[in-house]
Write the structure tokens for this entry.
Amino acid sequence: MLLARVTGTLVATQKHPAYAGHRILLVQPVTPELTAKGDAFYAVGHVQAGVGDLVLVAREGGSARIMLDAGETPIHAAVAGIVDMVDLT
Amino acid sequence: MFVGNVIGTVVATTKYETLQGVKLMLVQPLDDEMAPKGDPVVAVDSVGIGVGERAFCVLGKEAAMALDDSFAPVDVAIVGIVDAVTKG
């Protein structure tokens, strides 16, 4: 899983039925020091994460589909949790 | 998942049987500032998108799951038509 910052939201009226009722978030991966690293991508927001939140993202279809309790759905990335803190000791 | 501009279509008369009847689109991936990034890819369409529209796409094995028959050799699928991406 990745640490990422939610930086935006995507709206698509016309979409695959598997996405009905799901929020689509733009997420920017970050390092443990919380600086942006790598390319931003889109993930389904399962938990109530919003713009500015630090989140855990599963960027792998099997995990994403387990979280969403979905069978054969075309969803490849999903937010798994909202991070309270990262302790680097 | 990523967003890209639909820049064309691809026609292949002879193709794998589970791809019969599937519409193939050329998609130019975009970064989070909506600037082109990387090379165009061929994606299957599951939402009836047209050239000039902005596509929401899924990568990997899950792309095939956008089709009725998911046992298909597909690694990019269009699963939405983007109305807007709001940042910040």
About this structure: The mean pLDDT of chain A is 92.
